[in-house]
Amino acid sequence: MIRHLRWPTLSGVLLLAACVTAPVPPGAPADPVPVRDWPGNPVIQPADAGGVFQENLSGLAYQASGSAPGVLWAALNGPGSVFRLVRDGSIWTPDPRDDWGEGKRVHYPDGTGEPDAEGITFTGSGDGLALYVASERNNEVRDVSRNSVLRFDPGEPGATLVATHEWNLTSDIPATGANSGIEAIAFVPDAFLVSSGFRDERVGGAYDPARYPDHGGGLFFVGVEGTGMIYGYALNHRDGSFGRIATISSGLPAVMALEFDPGSSRMWAVCDNGCDGRAALLSIDDLPGSATTGRFTATAFHLRPGGMPNLNNEGFAVAPLEECAAGTRSVFWSDDGESDGHSLRRGALACP
């Protein structure tokens, strides 16, 4: 194990990332993929007031405001809810305005049920902002898989949100236990996919957004807890149909969080305490010595930050490059187990 590091404070600059020689996780690509230390400051700090969520905080997504700070969207898996979190000094707290103070309970499009809200992402901005929640089951029927992506309008008034759309992917995803299905979701814009030469497995060639009308300007990638697989979908917003565009091995035994980072053109897949908080960093055709494939491939695995206990982290979000300061930007984790009374933690990631 070779390290050459200097970490003065949480806001300090990453001088040199460490390289760690370690076994490749089960399911990783056949070619050796490096396992490295966390590429940022190892210091981690609580980012909530403590005792706010009473466990079950899962997915996270960071919405930039154009000037720091932005908004953290969070999914609570039981009772199924969505939170809008705003910064108050050094902590993030539920927005007290517009009925967001206790989070908003979520329901299926017919107004019934309680989706097990595990992952969250968004598209658009302003009045065009839409939230997408990944759910593996209806909490009112806990023993039955219902692997769905649900779209919500965060501008809907009141203390509940009724889904405008549901894409039930259960028949398309290899069977898992009802509590080990879709756990994470990330949105990747068409512009990035096309410019990167992304491959469409349905047609066996380059991805062409024009083949998929009304799909929302990008693809939605979902991560499965029970298998560590990631699937990319075009979701038709007019008729509710869907098409699987990509099948990706994360190289991890489980995927609990997904985050596409436009600033680095990478996708993060994050595991929980079941694999020591390890994360896979995936990119399109960026593995040295590999052939051009047009697929997301794990190009590195990262250990959790040195200051992070082995927590049941199920959410991960990265602030944009515009919020870089002193060579780092904020990253956030959500702990489903609310260890030591905290569900949110903040760290620092080196800016590319």
List keywords for this structure.
single chain; 352 residues; mainly beta; Neuraminidase; six-stranded mixed β-sheet; 26 strands; 2% helix; disordered N terminus
Task: Produce the secondary structure layout.
Blueprint: E1 19-20, E2 35-36, E3 45-46, E4 57-63, E5 71-77, E6 80-88, E7 91-94, E8 104-107, E9 115-123, E10 130-138, E11 145-152, E12 160-162, E13 165-168, E14 182-189, H1 190-195, E15 199-200, E16 205-206, E17 218-224, E18 229-235, E19 242-249, E20 257-261, E21 266-270, E22 279-284, E23 296-302, E24 313-318, E25 328-335, E26 344-350
Parallel strand pairs: 2-23, 8-12
Antiparallel strand pairs: 1-2, 3-26, 4-5, 5-6, 6-7, 6-8, 9-10, 10-11, 11-13, 14-17, 15-16, 17-18, 18-19, 20-21, 21-22, 22-23, 24-25, 25-26
- CATH homologous superfamily assignment: TolB, C-terminal domain
Uncertain residue ranges: 1-30
Element-by-element helix/strand order: EEEEEEEEEEEEEEHEEEEEEEEEEEE
Determine the number of helices (DSSP H or I, runs of at least 4 residues): 1
- Helix content percent band: under 10%
The radius of gyration computed from the alpha-carbon positions, rounded to a whole number of angstroms, is: 19 Å
Distance between the termini: 24 Å
User: What is the correct CATH architecture?
Assistant: 6 Propeller
Tell me the overall shape.
globular
CATH topology: Neuraminidase
Indicate the mean pLDDT.
90
- Per DSSP, what share of the residues sits in E-state strands of 2 or more residues? 35-45%
The total domain count is 1
Broad CATH class: Mainly Beta
Query: Which strand order spans the largest sheet, edge to edge or round the barrel?
Result: 1-2-23-22-21-20
